[in-house]
């Protein structure tokens, strides 16, 4: 062991500090609201061969360096190089929709490569069919914006400005694109400098050994936990997304995790449904399930980092070409988040099947509405990411109103200052959290009044037909909806994946998002907690009586009636989606 | 309260209340002479120790209460209430449709937390105590729907019925037009005269409703307790015949009168580390040091601040516990590394240090109060960086207990005790270095051009090691590094920020409108100066334009010296800070800010009175160095006079801290009393 435990911890801390610096720079200098307000960006450090060593707690990354190395052999790289791509098919899903730009720089000490640094951010518009580049209407990946194959944006410090010009010219919002690009480049350069400093301080071979240890540490923990969780044999779980926005669906994700006698772990996804016409295909890099399980298994493991050690804990991932998880080009990919969120729930479903009661219940898929049009002769793009409820856990309620890892909502005041809308309501979505000993998190309700004529709306909602499941006697979560002019004669319910709806001045869109499933029997939730849920607008009095057996009148607990209601305890089951079931299909 | 009087009142008294002791510094502003007093804190009623300490100091100085011209105090009452969730029962009145504004927040799952493990913290006001009222202001400040004043009495009745002690009001877009908030404030104050009522725009008139609502709620929720607390202090002072104004440290590093703090106690919530930084700056200024990085290391945390050209930056990205509190505060970073930080072995054999801390109880293992896990302090003791007695012999440290604790990590890792101890310090130092880098890069500075100023009880043990890691060659240890807060209080000026959003493209901005904007701010400042009774000659103000590229989310403060050259100054600042600028992209002036200061003319730094290093030598002790055990001199700081010089390795002890001078460093006492350490190589 070249790197002692002390240096190892110092290197881990220094890598985290480098990430914090890069993120601070990006947040402060980027221009699009997607990056600076919603914070849709991530950073990571890699070893000299390109394995991600210190990443973000976001389980959607595949092998980031590989696609670059395939085109620009590692030995040809030089100090001051900067590589870039967003090519999903060209990277086997290392990035999985084209809005995500990957900027990657190698770091050198005395001419020897010591590692790589990544800055990754969602760019709000890169061309394509509709403003925002992502649309439920897309049927072809080429409609989802400009594709940048792995390219060398900088060679030894010299920038290929023409390449940037082409990219910016393909955006409907070129100034934002320019600002975001410069910010990301500066952040990566900063990270490169920090990685060099770390390598110089400890010597490159010590750094390399530290990185190897961090990788093997994560792999060891994930492997141990896989062994502790799954029996020898095959564990199966099926979950489903509702539709592809083109009249097809549901699409089922069928996972089969096999632990062999000699403790090899094989994840087989090949029975998953065929790929979709619409843009819900997830080009899943084989590293992704290992990253996702890694995030799950690293809960409570302070001092560990999610990295490429997670994927190494899985010995094989089987994909079927032409399936929803391994689509053939040029199937559209823009809304792959929907399928990604189901995949994460399905992986928890495997755990819940093997170890009843251990895993969290399912969550809703995060929701985005996009409104585009013209205001004062300028085009605008309001792309609003909206939080949902997450699944209840064996130790706590599910989280209310969260989008996904580290991403923030747009404040109402920011929305109204920036876009021609007025928010009439932003509240928790009552009764959307699945009932249980621990309640599923609630989604939200957001009412938008449109202040301009002829604005085009896109909606992406999932888990409406197939709500998030409850677990271990807990009930499933509530569903979302998008309704125009609710409560009026002109009320209409929009398809949950849809684009092209034209809204005019005075129209109101009511967007409600889904919740998370519950964990444990609802009758085991203390009545006082249910009372607080009702008083706080999480649960209605009606649902309190029906699901929890708790009688509440005028925000006051009726103890006698509650005892009567709880005298008969409804039968429950391992999973619940609209009804209890031992196995979900 | 008037600050001038016919009688000469040259004394100032600064009181810092800690968990264990209350420290009082009495200073004569005319002569610079200072007296200190220490008395046990009285947590059941801190004002007891407050007064006892003041009287003790007066007695020690042989002076009378009537000579006191001002009383300075830093309080963590508000901070502790918030952190411990013990705030007053509070209601929030909000705009119809936004009852869950606190509950939803920013959907802000922290970036380094695990999505599946994270538990959303309980809000200080639950949704059942949030009341909606109709009325709507648009983003541009125009009124869309009048305030439903008729609904307020019923809301007041419900607030009364819930047993609230405090009420916060936050309406959408109040930052653009506070009319509705002010009206609701008047109505609620009238119907709930015995409750603390506050409006968001009184606390923080900035955009983003969650953050502003939270600021209003936290402000309201600490008002009753802070008001009671200040009332008690003032009663005690009056009792003792002290007729001087009570001034309190704010998060921005300035002080304000108690009336202002009663209105906006949230302004003190991030003030904990501020006084020390102000004290460090004052000591540095006296020593002619303009560029410094301060590291205040206590038992559980370290606060790091960068001061460039004598100026302390402000930020509005502060947090108290899990809550954002975007009031102006000193721009610093706090990390969980201190003398009490515990070393543990994590999964996979990783040695980690902190953020868990042994705190004051049980404290480090060597304190002998029941702690068994190894801490940073235990590592220092084992290596011989600390003498076995602290606080002038009042506290004995037990090396055997430190060894036993260190063995708990050393043995499983196959390390010697010495390597484990050194490792714990190296990890703690590196955590701090990471934070220092964040502070410096965010301000676009290379730390190598700075002097490191360590303070706090544990700071001077780490100063030289941190400097070495950062490439810094000079370390300045203040005269009383363990009680620098009191000196900071004594050195602080009255300070307040006034700002106005103008959101104007630089290309179309005119000198006239900007001058007008600043003039309005100066009028507000004039009213504040009058409130705080600041004499004309003591008034100061700095004008700053907060600027950004169009569509960015963060602004940079650019000193206002007219429109000419403003764009270039902004681009240069952007380049310096972030490494690039964006030629050809429009620049905006978002906000005009005026920082108003009322100079209080704190006392000059006390001069050191001791002699040379030989005279200060009070013993020797063994120290474990990488090359083996060496016998190193132990010097008494109080006996080191100006000009005293010595070389490391050495240990300098004083009542409030121990300084480690490692091999390769030379130390010298400056005429102003600070001890400078210089790297020899």
What does this structure look like?
The complex is a heterodimer of chains A (585) and B (681). Chain A has 585 residues and is α+β, with helices and mostly antiparallel strands. Among the domains of chain A are: 212 residues, no CATH class; 166 residues, no CATH class. Chain A has 13 helices and 25 strands. In chain A, the strands form 6 sheets. Chain A has a 7-stranded antiparallel β-sheet. In chain A, strands 14-15-21-18-19 form a 5-stranded antiparallel β-sheet, with helices on one face. In chain A, helix 1 packs across helix 6. Chain B is α+β, with helices and mostly antiparallel strands. Among the domains of chain B are: 74 residues, Nucleotidyltransferase, domain 5 (2-Layer Sandwich); 147 residues; 87 residues, no CATH class. In chain B, the strands form 11 sheets. In chain B, strands 3-2-1-4-11-12 form a 6-stranded mixed β-sheet, with helices on both faces. In chain B, strands 13, 14, 15, 20 and 25 form a 5-stranded mixed β-sheet that branches. In chain B, strands 6-5-9-10 form a 4-stranded parallel β-sheet, sandwiched between helices. In chain B, strand 21 and strand 22 form a beta hairpin. In chain B, helix 2 packs across helix 7, helix 10 crosses helix 11 and helix 10 crosses helix 12. Chain B is globular, with a radius of gyration of 26 Å. At the A-B interface, helix 1, helix 5, helix 6, helix 10 and strand 14 of A face helix 3, helix 7, strand 22 and helix 12 of B.
């Amino acid at each position: 062991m070249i790197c002692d435990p002390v240096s190892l911890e110092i290197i881990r801390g220094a890598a985290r500090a480098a990430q914090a610096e890069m993120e601070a720079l990006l947040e402060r200098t980027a221009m699009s609201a997607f990056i600076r307000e919603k914070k849709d960006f991530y950073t990571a450090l890699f070893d000299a061969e390109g394995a991600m060593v210190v990443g973000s707690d976001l389980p959607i990354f595949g092998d980031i360096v590989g696609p670059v190395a395939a085109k620009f052999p590692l030995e040809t790289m030089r100090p001051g190089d900067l590589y870039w791509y967003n090519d999903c098919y060209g990277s086997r899903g290392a990035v999985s929709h084209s809005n995500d730009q990957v900027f990657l720089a190698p770091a050198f000490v005395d001419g020897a490569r010591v590692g790589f640094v990544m800055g990754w951010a969602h760019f709000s518009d890169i061309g394509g069919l509709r403003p925002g580049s992502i649309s439920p209407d897309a049927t072809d990946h080429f409609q989802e914006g400009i594709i940048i194959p792995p390219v060398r944006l900088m060679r030894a410090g010299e920038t290929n400005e023409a390449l940037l010009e082409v990219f910016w010219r393909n955006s409907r919002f070129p100034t934002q694109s320019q600002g975001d690009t410069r910010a990301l480049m500066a952040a990566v350069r900063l990270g490169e400098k920090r990685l060099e400093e770390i390598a110089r301080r400890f010597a490159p071979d010590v750094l390399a050994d530290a990185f190897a240890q961090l990788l093997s540490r994560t792999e060891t923990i994930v492997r141990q936990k896989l062994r502790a969780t799954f029996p020898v044999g095959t564990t199966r779980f099926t979950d489903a997304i509702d539709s592809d926005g083109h009249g097809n669906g549901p699409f089922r994700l069928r996972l089969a995790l096999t632990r062999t006698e000699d403790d090899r772990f094989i994840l087989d996804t090949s029975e998953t449904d065929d790929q979709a016409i619409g843009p819900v295909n997830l080009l899943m890099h084989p590293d992704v399930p290992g990253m996702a399980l890694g995030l799950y298994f690293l809960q409570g493991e302070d001092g560990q980092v999610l990295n490429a050690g997670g994927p190494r804990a899985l010995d094989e991932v089987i994909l079927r070409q032409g399936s929803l998880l391994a689509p053939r080009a040029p199937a559209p990919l823009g809304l792959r988040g929907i399928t990604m969120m189901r995949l994460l729930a399905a992986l928890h479903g495997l755990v819940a099947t093997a170890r009843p009661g251990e895993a969290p219940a399912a969550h809703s898929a995060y929701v985005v509405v996009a409104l585009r049009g013209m205001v004062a002769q300028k085009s605008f793009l309001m792309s609003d990411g909206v939080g949902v409820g997450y699944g209840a856990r064996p130790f706590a309620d599910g989280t209310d109103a969260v989008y996904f890892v580290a991403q923030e909502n747009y404040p109402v005041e920011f929305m109204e200052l920036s876009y021609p809308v007025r928010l009439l309501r932003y509240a928790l979505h009552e009764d959307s959290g699945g009932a249980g000993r621990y309640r599923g998190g609630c989604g939200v309700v957001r009412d938008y009044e449109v202040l301009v004529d002829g604005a085009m709306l896109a909606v992406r909602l999932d888990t409406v037909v197939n709500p998030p499941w409850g677990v271990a006697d807990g009930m499933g979560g509530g569903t979302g909806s998008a309704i125009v002019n609710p409560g009026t004669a002109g009320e209409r319910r929009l398809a949950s994946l849809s684009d092209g709806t034209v809204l005019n001045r005075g129209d109101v869109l009511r967007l409600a998002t889904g919740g998370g499933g519950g964990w444990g029997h609802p009758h085991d939730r203390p009545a006082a907690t249910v009372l607080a849920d009702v008083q706080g607008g999480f649960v209605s009095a009606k649902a309190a009586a029906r699901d929890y057996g708790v009688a509440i009148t005028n925000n006051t607990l009726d103890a006698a009636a509650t005892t009567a209601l709880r005298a008969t305890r409804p039968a429950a089951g391992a999973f619940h989606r609209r009804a209890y079931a031992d196995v979900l299909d | 309260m008037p600050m001038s009087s016919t009688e000469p009142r040259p004394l100032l008294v600064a009181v810092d209340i800690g968990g264990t002791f209350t420290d009082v510094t009495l200073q004569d502003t005319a002569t610079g002479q200072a007296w200190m007093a220490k008395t046990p804190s009285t947590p059941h009623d801190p004002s007891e120790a407050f007064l006892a300490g003041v009287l003790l100091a007066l007695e020690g100085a042989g002076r009378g209460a009537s000579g006191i011209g001002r009383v300075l105090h830093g309080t963590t009452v508000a901070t502790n209430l918030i952190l411990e969730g013990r705030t007053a029962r509070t209601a929030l009145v909000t705009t119809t449709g936004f009852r869950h504004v606190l509950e939803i927040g920013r959907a802000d799952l922290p970036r380094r937390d695990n999505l599946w493990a994270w538990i959303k913290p309980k809000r200080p006001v639950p949704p059942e105590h949030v009341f909606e009222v109709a009325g709507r202001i648009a983003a541009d400040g125009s009124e869309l729907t009048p305030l439903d004043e008729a609904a307020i009495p019923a809301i007041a009745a419900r607030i009364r019925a819930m047993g609230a002690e405090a009420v916060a009001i936050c309406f959408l877009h109040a930052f653009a037009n506070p009319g509705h908030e002010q009206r609701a404030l008047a109505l609620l104050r009238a119907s709930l005269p015995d409750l603390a009522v506050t409006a968001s725009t009184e606390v923080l008139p900035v955009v983003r409703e969650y953050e502003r609502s939270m600021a209003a709620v936290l402000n309201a929720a600490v008002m009753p307790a802070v008001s009671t607390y200040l009332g008690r202090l003032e009663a005690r002072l009056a009792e003792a015949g002290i007729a001087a104004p009570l001034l309190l440290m704010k998060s921005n590093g300035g002080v304000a009168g108690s009336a202002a703090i009663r209105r906006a106690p949230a302004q003190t919530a991030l003030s904990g580390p501020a006084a020390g930084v102000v004290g460090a700056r004052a000591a540095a200024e006296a020593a002619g040091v303009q560029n410094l990085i301060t590291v205040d290391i206590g038992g559980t945390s370290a606060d790091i601040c960068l001061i460039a050209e004598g100026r302390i930056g402000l930020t509005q990205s502060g947090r108290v516990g899990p809550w954002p509190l975007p009031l102006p505060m000193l721009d610093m970073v706090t990390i969980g590394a201190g003398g009490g930080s515990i070393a543990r072995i994590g999964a996979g054999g990783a040695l980690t240090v902190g953020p868990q801390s042994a705190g004051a109880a049980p404290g480090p293992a060597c304190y002998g109060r029941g702690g068994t896990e190894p801490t940073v302090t235990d590592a220092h003791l084992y290596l011989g960086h600390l003498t076995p007695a602290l606080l002038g012999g009042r506290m004995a440290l037990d090396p055997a207990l430190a060894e036993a604790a260190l063995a708990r990590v050393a043995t499983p890792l196959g390390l010697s005790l010495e390597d484990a101890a050194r490792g714990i310090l190296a990890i703690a130092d590196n955590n701090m270095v990471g934070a220092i880098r964040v502070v410096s890069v965010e301000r676009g500075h290379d730390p190598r051009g700075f002097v490191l100023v360590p303070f706090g009880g544990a700071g001077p043990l780490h100063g030289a090691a941190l400097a070495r890691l950062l490439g810094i060659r000079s370390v300045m240890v203040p005269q009383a590094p363990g009680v620098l807060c009191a000196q900071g209080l004594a050195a602080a000026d009255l300070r307040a920020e006034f700002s106005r959003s103008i959101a104007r493209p630089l290309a179309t901005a005119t000198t006239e409108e900007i001058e007008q904007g600043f003039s309005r701010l100066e009028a507000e400042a004039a009213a504040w100066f009058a409130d705080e009774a600041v004499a004309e000659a003591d008034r100061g103000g700095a004008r700053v334009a907060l600027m950004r590229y169009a569509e960015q989310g963060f602004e940079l403060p650019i000193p206002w010296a007219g429109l000419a050259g403003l764009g270039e100054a902004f681009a240069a600042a952007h380049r310096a800070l972030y490494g690039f600028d964006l030629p050809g992209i429009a620049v905006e002036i978002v906000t005009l800010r005026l920082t108003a200061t009322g100079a209080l003319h704190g006392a000059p730094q006390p001069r050191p009175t001791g002699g040379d290093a030989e005279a200060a030598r009070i013993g020797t002790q063994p120290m474990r160095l990488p090359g083996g055990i060496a016998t190193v001199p132990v010097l008494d700081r109080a006996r080191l006079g100006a000009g005293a010089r010595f070389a490391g390795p050495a240990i300098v002890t004083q009542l409030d801290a121990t300084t480690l001078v490692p091999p390769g460093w030379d130390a010298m006492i400056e005429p102003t009393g600070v001890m400078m350490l210089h790297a020899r190589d």
